[in-house]
């Protein structure tokens, strides 16, 4: 089988520009299908987006931060769900926008482990630093003091709309690659466990009868292909619920302990359980077999985990109600 591995593009880019934050243009034919969701190399054109009034954008930012009930105080994960939800509100309010994606080298290179890093203002992450493989947020064109600007709406990092270069800089990875995409693209495929079909010369009309599932143990490297959100998956609502539940844990359980110097070991355990989005999602979504947390630690805090699992379920149901009118 002559399978076209699109990741080669990203590896080549990484070898050519490994020491500067670089823009990548994703532009190619649709070449892959997986799990009945269309995947594509999206095209982007600035001309498709109108210039919005800056005062209107500031008001919208305030609305997103204060009135949507999106939890921006747990930035550890689910940025793609926050961005998708904010995009829904922007569409509802008829605000022209797109998304900016920033990728760490670790997402498209086998040989580079660098990740995006941001300061953890809550001191909740196990390592004291929040690390991402990628980050995404809604972006608009506007004029500030008569000058055209590209600004990002990301209340998880800033208290106001900011120029996209400032948004990139705060993620502390000069080797990252960023791109602008249509807001309809929700997330990207990675190699691990992906089901792919081989297309002759990337022509969908010449599909061969070959489907192949890549091994799940492969690294989570990008293929370069994106897909739109499927509301039946409920991943958006679950992601918002994870963040809300985790921040409630921080306020109710961890924060009160910080004044007690004798509780440092317990604080460390709490950070391991709830301060890592990968860990808490594995626990709450029933993927304990993939969780890297020591089983004795899970057993020790079983009652606490069950308490917050119920909170997670309640928050998921709340979000399912909130998003009904947005689809």
UniProtKB/TrEMBL annotation:
Name listed for the protein in its UniProt record: Protein glutaminase domain-containing protein
Pfam family, one: Gln_deamidase_2
Superkingdom of origin: Bacteria
Signal peptide interval: 1-20
InterPro entries: Gln_deamidase_2
Source species of the chain: Mucilaginibacter pedocola
Positions of the Protein glutaminase domain: 58-169
Keyword vocabulary terms for this entry: Signal
């Amino acid at each position: 089988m002559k399978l076209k591995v699109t990741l080669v593009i990203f590896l080549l880019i990484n070898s050519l520009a490994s020491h500067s934050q670089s823009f990548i243009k994703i532009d190619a034919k649709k070449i892959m299908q997986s799990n009945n969701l269309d995947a594509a190399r999206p095209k982007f054109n600035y001309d498709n987006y109108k210039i919005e009034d800056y005062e209107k954008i500031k008001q919208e930012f305030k609305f997103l931060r204060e009135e949507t009930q999106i939890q921006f105080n747990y930035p550890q994960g689910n940025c793609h769900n926050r961005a998708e939800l904010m995009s829904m509100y922007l569409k509802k309010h008829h605000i022209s926008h797109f998304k900016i994606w920033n990728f760490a080298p670790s997402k498209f290179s086998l040989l580079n482990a660098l990740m995006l890093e941001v300061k953890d203002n809550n001191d909740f992450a196990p390592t004291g630093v929040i690390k991402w493989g990628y980050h995404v947020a809604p972006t608009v064109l506007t004029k500030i003091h008569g000058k055209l600007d590209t600004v990002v709406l990301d209340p998880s990092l800033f208290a106001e709309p900011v120029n996209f270069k400032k948004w990139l800089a705060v993620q502390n990875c000069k080797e990252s690659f960023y791109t602008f995409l249509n807001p309809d693209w929700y997330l990207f495929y990675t190699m691990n466990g992906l089901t792919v079909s081989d297309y002759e010369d990337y022509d969908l009309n010449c599909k061969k009868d070959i489907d192949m599932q890549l091994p799940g143990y492969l690294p989570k490297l990008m293929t370069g292909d994106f897909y739109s959100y499927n509301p039946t998956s409920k991943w958006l609502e679950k992601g918002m619920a994870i963040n809300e539940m985790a921040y409630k844990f921080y306020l109710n359980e961890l924060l009160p302990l910080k004044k007690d110097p004798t509780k440092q070991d317990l604080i460390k355990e709490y950070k391991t359980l709830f301060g890592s989005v990968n860990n808490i999602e594995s626990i709450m979504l029933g993927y304990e077999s993939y969780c890297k947390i020591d089983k004795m630690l899970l057993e020790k805090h079983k009652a606490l985990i069950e308490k917050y699992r119920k909170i997670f379920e309640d928050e998921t149901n709340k979000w399912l109600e909130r998003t009904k009118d947005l689809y």
